[in-house]
TrEMBL record:
Domain of life: Bacteria
SUPFAM superfamilies for this protein: Integrin alpha N-terminal domain
Stated name of the protein: ATP/GTP-binding protein
UniProt xrefs under Pfam families: FG-GAP_3, Inhibitor_I36
Keywords attached to this entry: Signal
Lineage: Bacteria, Bacillati, Actinomycetota, Actinomycetes, Kitasatosporales
Organism for this UniProt entry: Streptomyces echinatus
C-alpha cells in the first residue's frame, strides 16, 4: 500500500512538472516577470511568492527540516546537477507526496498557490526520492550450486542492477543492495552467466558502446567486481544480443552467444582455459534477427546441458532451444505462447525459488497490461521453472522496479 502511494506521488510529480495546469506548473521565466536566474548554479532555490518572486531561500545540501521556511516556498528552481526531491513532509518522508525536480532546470521554475514544502533531498536518480536506488530482490537458497546467477557463492540467486545514473548495485536476494561500481552507462550490454575467468567466481561481461570493446569484470566472490580486463578488442557493435550462456560446448567453461546483425547468424564464442574467448563457431545459420532477446537459462531440460530461451519479436512468443551433446541446439519447443514483448528485462539467475530448477524473472515495460489496461512498466514477475523445461504461470510481485537502466 505504501509503495503504491509513493509511486502515485512520483507519477503525479511528472504530470505537474510538465505543466498540465493541475495547480503547479513549469513556466519559462522571462526577465521582466521573474528572477529565477538569481538562483546561483549549484543551488536549489525557493521563493516566498509564486513565479520566483518575493524573498529567496537557497541550499546546496539536503535539508530535513526547512525551519522558518517550512511550508513557505511557493515557487522553486533546481540548478544543481542532481535530482531535487521536494517533499510535503519533513525528514524526506515520501508518504505525504513529493515532486522530483530534474537536474539543471535553469530558467524553469515550478510555481503554485500552495506552500507545502517541508524538506528537500538531493539524489542521483528519481527512484531515490521514494525508495532505494536498487530494487528489492528476494530469492531462496538453492539446494545446490548452479554455477551461475550467484556472485557471492551463497547458493542464493542474486541480481545486478544498473540505475539511471550508471551505478551498479549488487542485490543478494535478501532485499538489500550494495554499490559495486559506477560509470556503467557507457556500456550497452551487461551479461553474466557463470565464471569466464576460471577462478570459480562469477563474472560480468560488458560491451562499451563507444568502442565496441568487450570487457570482463571478474567477480571477487563477494558480489564485488575486480579490475576489468579486455576480452574483445573491438567490432562487437556489429553483434546484437550478446548473451553469456554457460557451457554449451561441454568442456565445463562458460561460453558466449551473439547474433551477427548483418546476417542473422548465431555465433558461439567458447570460453578458454585462460579466461579469454576462443575462435567463434557458427551454431545458427540465419534467422536469429527475428529474435529480440536471448536468455541463457542454465539446464532447464535436466540433461546437464545449458539451454537457451529466445523471444520472437513478431509474435512475442518465448522458445526453448535445448543444448545438445553436439554443442548445438536441438528442436525448439514453445515455452510462452505470446505477450512476452511486454517485458523490458528477462533476468536469468538460476533457481531463485529453491526447488533446484532454474527460474526466470522479468520486469515489465509500457506494453504490460493489468486488468486490461496497458502502461504498467516496472513490475517484477517471477516465473518458476518446471521439470519440462517450461515455466509455470507468472507471479506479479513488486511494482517498484521502475527507473532502472539494466539488470543482469
Ligand atoms: Ca548469491
Ligand atoms: Ca571468475
Ligand atoms: Ca539442457
Ligand atoms: Ca526454481
Amino acid at each position: 500500500m505504501q509503495n503504491r502511494l509513493t509511486r502515485g506521488a512520483a507519477a503525479f510529480a511528472g504530470l505537474v512538472l510538465t505543466g498540465t495546469g493541475l495547480g503547479l506548473g513549469v513556466v519559462n521565466a522571462t526577465p521582466a516577470a521573474a528572477s529565477s536566474y538569481d538562483c546561483p548554479a549549484g543551488y536549489f532555490c525557493g521563493w516566498s511568492g509564486e513565479s520566483a518572486t518575493g524573498s529567496m531561500w537557497k541550499t546546496s545540501k539536503s535539508v530535513a527540516d526547512l525551519g522558518a521556511w517550512d511550508n513557505k516556498i511557493r515557487s522553486y528552481v533546481n540548478r544543481t546537477k542532481v535530482f531535487a526531491c521536494v517533499y510535503e513532509d519533513k525528514n524526506y518522508s515520501p508518504w505525504g507526496g513529493y515532486f522530483a525536480q530534474d537536474p539543471n532546470s535553469a530558467g524553469e521554475y515550478s510555481s503554485g498557490p500552495d506552500a507545502t514544502t517541508s524538506s528537500i533531498k538531493f539524489v542521483h536518480t528519481e527512484r531515490e526520492c521514494g525508495q532505494t536506488a536498487y530494487p528489492g530482490w528476494y530469492s531462496e537458497i538453492a539446494p545446490k550450486a548452479q554455477g551461475f546467477g550467484d556472485m557471492n557463492g551463497d547458493r542464493r540467486a542474486d541480481v545486478i542492477a544498473r540505475d539511471d545514473a550508471g551505478r551498479l548495485w549488487f542485490t543478494p536476494g535478501t532485499g538489500t543492495g550494495r554499490l559495486i561500481g559506477s560509470g556503467f552507462n557507457g556500456m550497452n550490454t551487461l551479461t553474466r552467466h557463470g565464471d569466464l575467468s576460471r577462478d570459480g567466481r562469477e563474472d560480468l561481461v560488458t560491451r562499451e558502446a563507444a568502442t565496441g570493446k568487450l570487457w570482463l569484470y571478474p567477480g571477487t566472490g563477494t558480489g564485488s567486481l575486480g579490475s576489468r580486463r579486455l576480452i574483445g578488442a573491438g567490432g562487437w557493435n556489429s553483434m546484437s544480443k550478446i548473451t553469456a550462456f554457460g557451457d554449451l560446448t561441454g568442456d565445463g567453461r562458460s561460453d558466449l552467444l551473439a547474433v551477427e546483425k548483418s546476417t542473422g547468424k548465431l555465433w558461439l564464442y567458447p570460453g578458454t582455459t585462460t579466461g579469454t574467448l576462443g575462435s567463434r563457431r557458427l551454431i545458427g545459420s540465419g534467422g536469429w534477427n527475428s529474435m529480440n532477446a536471448l536468455v541463457g537459462m542454465g539446464d532447464v531440460s535436466g540433461d546437464g546441458r545449458a539451454d537457451l530461451y529466445a523471444r520472437e519479436a513478431a509474435t512475442g512468443k518465448l522458445w526453448l532451444y535445448p543444448g545438445t551433446t553436439t554443442g548445438k541446439f536441438g528442436t525448439r519447443k514453445l515455452v510462452g505462447s505470446g505477450g512476452w514483448n511486454a517485458m523490458a528485462n528477462l533476468i536469468s539467475v538460476g533457481d531463485f525459488s529453491g526447488d533446484g530448477r532454474p527460474d526466470l524473472a522479468t520486469v515489465t515495460n509500457e506494453k504490460y497490461a493489468i486488468d486490461g489496461y496497458v502502461g504498467n512498466p516496472g513490475w517484477l514477475i517471477k516465473y518458476l521453472g518446471r521439470n519440462t523445461g517450461t515455466l509455470a504461470a507468472g507471479e506479479r510481485t513488486d511494482g517498484e522496479w521502475w527507473g532502472l537502466n539494466g539488470l543482469a
